[in-house]
Write a structure and sequence with these properties.
Layout: H1 3-18, E1 38-42, H2 59-68, E2 72-79, E3 85-87, E4 92-93, E5 96-97, H3 120-127, E6 134-139, H4 145-161, E7 170-174, H5 177-186, E8 192-194, H6 201-206, E9 211-215, H7 216-221, H8 224-231, E10 235-239, H9 244-253, E11 257-260, H10 263-270, E12 274-275
Parallel strand pairs: 1-2, 1-11, 1-12, 2-6, 6-7, 7-8, 8-9, 9-10, 10-11
Antiparallel strand pairs: 2-3, 4-5
């Protein structure tokens, strides 16, 4: 072997040792400890019952989830043109885009149980007394990063005001990668799960996030989502799983949270596997 060849081999070895992850060859980890069982997340609250008023994202549905003792209660947040945060899923109400209209444009709207659309502060006030049900806070996508920045900033301020800015009390999810990054930046140590299936877990981790929250079909279509998330120490949530057959499928793979419109069915299926806070 010539000196030139030997030097080339040494250089190649050094380059291989330094390739891969940002941490110098060691696998990056989000540090999320897998659940010993599965936490049930009531999708938009436990709305699918008399006590929840059959009203998604209502205060009644949140209280019903708390009373039932489910691990988590998911809810959706949008911001109006005058920077009022409301708990509502869709981006428009009666044809009016939420972020383009003031809150006054929606004050007369009523949910299925007669409640007005909750303000985020009203929702947090109802959540405050119950530490046993975690808030699974979904910030909806908005049209610009600047609007999303403002919505995240105001959300964090309100959580702090109500004594809920605690990783034991709240976690964050969003389809907006920008929103997820902002929550992760402002709230280090909190669980932040990306809802999109367009990135593999390692790519989600590279964006500073520590969890994935995937649609059932996307998650089950490729085992790489589970395997890579577990390898990277990331949490795994799957939505919105309503039939017992589908629940069995995802639970068998080993997940942390199951988001469902049928939390009582999930409780019956999980039995002793159900995790409660």
């Amino acid at each position: 072997m010539t000196i030139r060849k030997a030097m080339a081999l040494l250089l190649a070895g050094a380059m291989m040792a330094s390739c891969g992850t940002k941490s110098g060859g060691k696998a990056a980890s989000a540090g999320q400890k897998p659940f010993d069982g599965v936490g049930i997340v009531a999708h938009r609250g436990y709305w699918n019952c008399e006590e929840g008023g059959f009203a998604r994202n209502s205060v009644a549905a949140l209280k019903a989830a708390q009373k039932a003792g489910f691990w988590g209660s998911e809810f959706d947040v949008n911001m109006t043109a005058d920077s009022v945060l409301i708990v509502f899923h869709d981006s428009s109400i009666n044809g009016k885009r939420i972020e383009s209209n003031p809150h006054s444009a929606f004050e007369d709207y009523r949910l299925e149980n007669g409640e007005p659309i909750p303000l985020l502060e009203q929702f947090l006030a109802a959540a405050q007394p119950c530490p046993t049900t975690k808030l699974v806070f979904e910030m909806k996508q908005h049209s610009t990063p600047a609007i999303e920045d403002e919505a995240v900033r105001r959300s964090v301020a309100l959580l702090k005001t109500y004594g809920l800015l605690d990783p034991e009390r709240v976690m964050f999810i969003s389809f907006s990668l920008h929103v997820c990054r902002e929550f992760a930046r402002l709230c280090p140590g909190f669980t932040v799960q990306y809802l999109g299936a367009n990135l593999w877990p390692a790519e989600v981790l590279d964006n500073g996030l520590n969890g994935i929250d995937l649609n059932h079909d996307a998650y089950m279509a490729n085992g790489r989502f589970h395997d890579e998330a577990r390898e990277k120490g990331m949490s795994i949530n799957v939505w919105t799983v309503n039939s017992p057959e589908r629940m069995q499928q995802v639970v068998a793979t080993g997940i942390d949270q199951l988001t469902t419109d049928e939390p009582m069915k999930a409780r019956e299926l999980l039995g002793a596997q159900e995790v409660r806070k």
